[in-house]
Amino acid sequence: MNTIAVIGTRGFPGIQGGVEVHSYHLYTHMRDVRVRLYRRRAYLTAQSAHTFPNIEYVDLPSTRIKGFEAVWHTLLAVLHILFHRPDVVHIHNIGPGMFAPLIRLMGLPVVLTYHSPNYEHDKWNAPSRWLLRQCEKLSLRFSNRVIFVNKYQMEKCGALDKSVFIPNGIDAVTRSESTTFLDKHGITPGGYLLAVGRLTPEKGLEYLVEGANRLLQVTQVVIAGASDHDSAYRQLLEKLDVNKKVVFTGFTTGEDLRQLYSHARLFVLPSVNEGFPMVLLEAMAYGLPILCSDIPGTRQVDLPDQDYFTVKDVDSLCAAISRLLDAPSEPQHYDLEKYDWQSIAATTRRQYPV
After folding, report:
1. pLDDT of the residue at 229
2. What is the DSSP letter of 238?
């Protein structure tokens, strides 16, 4: 059985982040290979102790210093790979992809998954954005195979012969009847707008908070997610929440998150930048009415035009929210057949040159 070394993710399970959730579903569905997962110790939680038959954890020292943690951890992982050689190295994201040339010099094939153009995120300063662009060039040039989760980004990068589009996926879900987590936070079932994601500027949550505080129809907004490095962005959101409508539940997963999806009135994704948001697929799986900012990442799925609003435009968001809240509350039905994780894992497995 071949061994696949996985770097560029903080790890799983029980670790917040889109790449982390992607990796969890991908590798737990990929059972015909051995997966060696390099995890960052600073992010491990009690849930991270859960094991899987085909997955080996290599937990290495890490920091939570923005801009440094990924480079440091990936360097340590590459040094470990030098002495514990796998058959293939699978890198997630263009930042860690800066090490693709070094891995190729070791004589190992590299598969890169390009999740998002990180240099477009507001959290990075000009030198960091320049560095990430150089990482993108190295990643695309030296990887044997490049997987894009965003078709628009693949076309933007030139749709190389070695590129392939493989979307994110979603497993089947069942709605929860329980409201214990909602009761704990004072959340009214069926009466709240839900947003899920890390508290970072590219998620555009300030537009949702500002819009909700303008609308009398909106009585409660639940934001499920936590900050990665500092609390400045959350403090901004709290300051904008002048009418105290927002409930912050922190990083939420498992049954608690299931309850939030099951009892929401409306799911809102106000992001400024996304690769392929898995939280959007999750909301669709639960049959929620959905509003998305009109960006390439959210246009990956086949939603009606009325489910989009102009990005960064609070007036457009408010008009869309009012329209949906005035409509009858009915479960929605979405076609998610092409987002099956088992099929996605099989397609990804075929990209490995072993």
Report:
1. 67
2. H
pLDDT of residue 87: 98
pLDDT mean for each 10 residues of the chain (354 residues): 96 93 96 96 93 96 81 95 97 95 97 88 80 91 95 83 94 95 97 95 96 96 87 92 96 96 98 93 97 94 92 97 92 93 97 93
Give start and end residues of each alpha helix (H) in the chain: 18-28, 69-83, 100-105, 126-142, 151-156, 180-185, 205-214, 232-240, 254-262, 278-285, 314-326, 341-349
Q: What is the DSSP letter of 52?
A: B
Q: In whole angstroms, give the CA distance from residue 122 to residue 198.
A: 14
Sheet holding 266-269, edge to edge: 246-248, 221-224, 193-196, 266-269, 290-293, 308-309
Distances (CA, A) of 260 to 59, 121, 277: 31, 27, 17
- In angstroms, the CA 169 to CA 35 distance is 19
Q: Give me the sign of the Cα torsion angle 233, 239, 241, 244.
A: positive
Cβ 106 vs Cβ 13: under 8 Å? no
What is the SS3 assignment for 138? helix
Query: Element (H or E) spanning 70, and its range?
Result: helix 69-83
Residue corresponding to tokens 């801009």: 67
Q: Give the single-character DSSP code of 287.
A: T
Question: Which tokens hold the place of 52?
Answer: 């899987």
Contact 18, 196 (CB under 8 A): no
Q: Are the CB atoms for 118 and 125 separated by under 8 Å?
A: no
Are 143 and 162 in contact by the 8 Å Cβ rule? The answer is yes
Residue 321 pairs in a beta bridge with none
Distance (Å) of CA 246 to CA 189, 239, 249, 257: 14, 11, 10, 16
- Record the pTM: 0.90
Chain-centre distance of CA 280, in angstroms? 10
Cα(149)–Cα(100) distance, rounded to whole angstroms? Answer: 19
Task: Read off the amino acid at residue 213.
Answer: N
CA 323, CA 217: separation in Å to the nearest integer? Answer: 10
CA neighbor of 134 nearest in space, from 88, 89, 163, 99: 99
